[in-house]
Write a sequence for this structure.
């Protein structure tokens, strides 16, 4: 039973952390362009090197 | 990693950059993304560019001094057609969905944690442990209900204030009663608390709202990417001879704008200098250009095709003819706001039935002498078990799945109520130009021409922006013709193109309107050849009309064009037609048919169809339609084919069929569950299982619509 005193707050805190992370992701625009992320994987990296030069 | 910037960089960080947005519909692959982002980021004065692939938009962060149309040119130089996006007029409700998603996330968090505690209570926690768990549940549930329940509370409050009821009223009453009883149970150490049921109810209903909101946003974003922005501003000629760029809303009468060929007019005005052809398609829906010279009136939203002109502004902003039509549309659209959505219609019968049932249960058990506490428990169990999940979740779920299926076929439905109204339509009216036809002239007799003639025609046509030239160019390019090499290509305003080919004078004359088609003359030396052009019927038009007819929707054409042009199209598709109709005529016909009990589906594109589109029971516009047409319509189809119109009606009807099935499922489930609740046999455990099971069943049924648009 004494385990509950730790386990319940831990469960709640983990849930809250997930909620806060989700809110942060929404505010940060992580869900604005869901299809774009799938396409960007295909962009070659070499052009980035050109820009660094 | 391979993103040129991160999204944060686009939020004005040093206050020294401006973010402009552009619609670039041609973004189709990863290559396009990198080409645009790297191409723009390399430019001076541009800090960064970020492509949003889902909405086909580019956000550019740049120096305040850089003009939007300069950036537009840069994007076009990279090989993409771009439109400047002003503040999106359709986006006013954006943000509503974000609030709902946050409420849904909070409800989900609460639901999971309370369920964790409830499961231990159900599996036999007794005495102080159970009380402790109930207390913790209450501590989680009360803030969650207050936060996530707000959309329901405020909507119910608004409805009650105006003496109406909607489906949020029974939901709110159920939530408040069940929460109140559960808090009381917790304080008195009772056996049953319904916190998890309340939060779960909120979660499921919010899921329905979120689906509904996402569907609306998706269509809005798609449509705003299509909107052809009517001139964001104009080059204004100052008195001292200098020019400056002034935004549309800052334009005032008596300013003089310089309008280059290919530009849209930002305001109404009178031509002071020069003469040119104007594309009035936005106003009249007809593709044939009109010639205007000094002293003639030209209107905002029309496009200057051939030569630069100077225009003295007579009306700007809200005073233009464009805005007049917008006002006419607003009035026409009023009656549509009285439409009651199917879920609210059902709630009108459902809510009183459920409430009186709960009340009756309470009274019966009071009379039976079990005491008010037990009677109230039973009444609340009835309220919870009859949760209107089918109304709140199943209807939006079915509509979202159906609109997603339609989106893949190129039809964007603006909201769920549009689908409901589409299913009810029993008559169709079509506009002709741009709706039944493609709205652009296509050459008919080019295959009779010899190869050198085709090459000369192409070389001449590709040097001009005129819609007829574009039609000829597209047809010849599709034929793999290479242009001839010409010297001294010149566009003579009002006359056409002229050039020399091996010393021979060649030319493409301005189009002349014959009875039902356009004709323009190709001159090579002394020889003259007529190129006949016609605005072609959309592919699939006949099949679509046939399908609509089979579904019991008779169709008629109503067009502003002259009788011979319309007759030809009408014969080809086998419909009767009314010709020479003004926007008011169209509006009148619709009011007349509506008054005689018909529910009209209007399909039209032009600004002249705007009022009719807004007044009809439901309306569809093609993606090539004017902005006004697209904003007034309930749905927009983006393909050249006309078939999506029939598909949309068919899918809407299947959706309503599924919705009715879901109602039947919900009622069937209630018939099974309510007697249990009435006899006092429902515990929180049974309520939770029954609620999630019924929700899953109706959502599963809605998913069957996924392949509906065939």
């Amino acid at each position: 039973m004494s385990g509950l005193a730790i386990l319940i707050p831990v469960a709640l805190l983990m849930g809250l952390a997930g909620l806060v992370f989700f809110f942060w992701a929404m505010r940060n625009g992580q869900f604005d362009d869901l299809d774009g992320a799938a396409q960007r994987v295909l962009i070659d990296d070499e052009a980035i090197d050109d820009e660094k030069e | 990693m391979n993103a040129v910037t991160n999204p944060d960089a686009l939020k004005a960080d040093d206050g020294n950059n401006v973010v402009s947005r552009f619609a670039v519909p041609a973004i189709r692959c990863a290559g396009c993304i990198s080409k645009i982002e790297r191409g723009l980021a390399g430019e001076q004065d541009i800090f960064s560019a970020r492509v949003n692939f889902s909405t086909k938009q580019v956000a550019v962060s740049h120096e305040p001094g850089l003009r939007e149309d300069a950036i537009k040119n840069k994007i076009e130089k990279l090989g993409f057609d771009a439109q400047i996006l002003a503040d999106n007029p359709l986006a006013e409700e954006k943000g509503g969905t974000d609030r709902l998603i946050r409420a849904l996330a909070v409800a989900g968090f609460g639901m999971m944690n309370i369920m964790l505690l409830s499961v231990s209570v159900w599996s036999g926690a007794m005495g102080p442990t159970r009380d402790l768990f109930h207390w913790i549940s209450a501590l989680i549930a009360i803030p969650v209900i207050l936060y996530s329940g707000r959309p329901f509370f405020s909507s119910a409050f608004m409805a009650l204030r105006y003496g109406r009821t909607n489906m949020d009223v029974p939901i709110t009453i159920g939530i408040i009663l069940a929460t109140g009883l559960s808090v009381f149970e917790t304080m008195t150490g009772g056996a049953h608390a319904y916190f998890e049921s309340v939060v779960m109810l909120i979660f499921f209903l919010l899921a329905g709202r979120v689906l509904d909101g996402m569907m609306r946003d998706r269509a809005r974003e798609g449509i705003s990417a299509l909107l052809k922005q009517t001139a964001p501003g104009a080059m204004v000629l100052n008195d001292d001879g200098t020019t400056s760029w002034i935004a549309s809303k800052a334009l005032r009468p008596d300013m003089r704008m310089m309008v280059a060929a290919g530009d849209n007019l930002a305001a109404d005005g009178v031509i002071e200098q020069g003469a040119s052809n104007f594309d009035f398609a936005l106003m009249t829906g007809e593709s044939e250009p009109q010639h205007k010279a000094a002293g003639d009136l030209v209107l905002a939203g029309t496009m200057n095709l051939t030569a630069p002109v100077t225009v003295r502004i007579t009306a700007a902003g809200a005073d233009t003819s464009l805005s007049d039509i917008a006002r006419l549309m607003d009035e026409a659209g009023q009656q549509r706001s009285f439409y009651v959505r199917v879920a609210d219609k059902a709630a009108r019968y459902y809510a009183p039935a459920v409430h009186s049932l709960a009340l009756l249960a309470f009274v019966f058990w009071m009379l039976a002498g079990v005491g008010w506490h037990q009677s109230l428990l039973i009444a609340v169990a009835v309220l919870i078990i009859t949760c209107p999940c089918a109304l709140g979740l199943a209807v939006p779920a079915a509509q979202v799945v159906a609109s997603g299926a339609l989106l893949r076929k190129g039809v964007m439905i603006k909201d769920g109520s549009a689908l409901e109204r589409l299913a009810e339509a029993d008559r169709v009216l079509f506009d002709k130009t741009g709706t039944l036809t493609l709205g652009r002239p296509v050459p008919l007799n080019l295959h009779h021409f010899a190869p050198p003639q085709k090459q000369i025609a192409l070389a001449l046509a590709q040097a001009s922006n005129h819609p007829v030239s574009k039609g000829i160019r597209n047809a010849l390019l599709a034929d793999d013709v290479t242009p001839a090499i010409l010297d001294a290509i010149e566009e003579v305003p009002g006359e056409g193109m002229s050039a020399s080919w091996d010393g021979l004078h060649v030319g493409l004359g301005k189009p002349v309107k014959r009875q039902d088609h356009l004709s323009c003359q190709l001159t090579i030396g002394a020889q003259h050849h007529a190129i006949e052009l016609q605005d072609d019927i959309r592919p699939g038009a006949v099949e679509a009309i046939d399908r609509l007819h089979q579904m019991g929707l008779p169709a008629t054409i109503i067009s502003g064009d002259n009788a011979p042009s319309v007759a030809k199209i009408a014969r080809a598709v086998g419909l009767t037609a009314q010709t020479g109709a003004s926007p008011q005529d169209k509006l009148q016909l619709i009011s007349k048919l509506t008054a005689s009990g018909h529910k009209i589906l209007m399909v039209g594109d032009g600004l002249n169809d705007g009022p009719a589109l807004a007044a009809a029971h439901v309306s569809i516009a093609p993606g090539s339609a004017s902005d006004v047409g697209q904003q007034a319509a309930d749905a927009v189809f983006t393909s050249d084919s006309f078939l999506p119109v029939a598909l949309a009606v068919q899918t809407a009807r299947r959706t309503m069929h599924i919705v009715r099935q879901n109602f039947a499922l919900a009622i069937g489930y209630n018939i099974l569950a309510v007697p249990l609740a009435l006899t006092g046999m429902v515990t929180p455990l049974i309520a939770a299982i029954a609620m999630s099971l019924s929700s899953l069943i109706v959502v599963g049924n809605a998913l069957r619509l996924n392949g509906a648009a065939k």
In short: The first helix of chain B runs from residue 30 to 41. Residues 1-14, 88-93 of chain B have pLDDT under 50 and may be disordered. Residues 10 and 35 of chain B are 18 Å apart (CA to CA).
